[in-house]
Amino acid sequence: MIGRAKKIISVWCVMVLAIITCFYQKPIVHAKENIVTKNSNLDTNSYKVFKVNNSNDKVKWTVSKKGYINIVEMQGKNNNYIVVKSGNKEGTCVLKAKVAKKTYSWKIKVKKDKKNSKATLVKVKKTDAGLNVTVRISNRSKERKEYGLVFSVERLENGYWKKLKMQEDYDIESIAKNIPIKGSVKETYKLGNCYNSEDLKKGIYRISLDVDFDKKSYSKVLFSVK
Description:
Elements: H1 2-23, E1 29-31, E2 37-42, E3 47-52, E4 59-63, E5 69-75, E6 81-86, E7 91-99, E8 102-110, E9 118-127, E10 130-139, E11 145-157, E12 160-163, E13 176-179, E14 183-190, E15 203-211, E16 220-225
Parallel strand pairs: 1-3, 2-8
Antiparallel strand pairs: 3-6, 4-7, 5-6, 7-8, 9-10, 10-14, 11-12, 11-13, 11-15, 15-16
């Protein structure tokens, strides 16, 4: 009887762990162990998350040239999670994270991506009805692509992405739209129609679009709510 009880408890633990794993996702870029120098590319007018793992000391972040990227938010007890935003200026800079006597650094190249099919941020606008996020969906391939209106939104909380829950009575129209070959379209997603206003508080978010690009990350767009 005791053995059976232990087995049931073990099964429940595995299920809970699986749910937590699905609920949270790892951040985009991180430094760990003895890897102290990395290269990272960043599209113009976009956001990226960086992390220093297992930091028991306060992390001090610095940017060599603020004209290319700017720090917009720090998270975590010791500031070990950071969000940066690039402008429209192309160039290279260095992001550094100093922890005690060790320094992590990333050589970041900011450049407009004209090669890959991807979604990029156009603007974020607050309205009386809520929040509107406009993105540009670009097709750089030689074949026609489609995208749907289905989407999901996540909020960054201490370096992990937490998926927001849509209102139960909200339905998204299931249709496909065309993206011209070597062209792009703009689409505005009205988040106020499907999420509660208290869920769209100040912070960093990302919206995942229903489009089949070469990399899954190309269909995700980060944005900030002020």
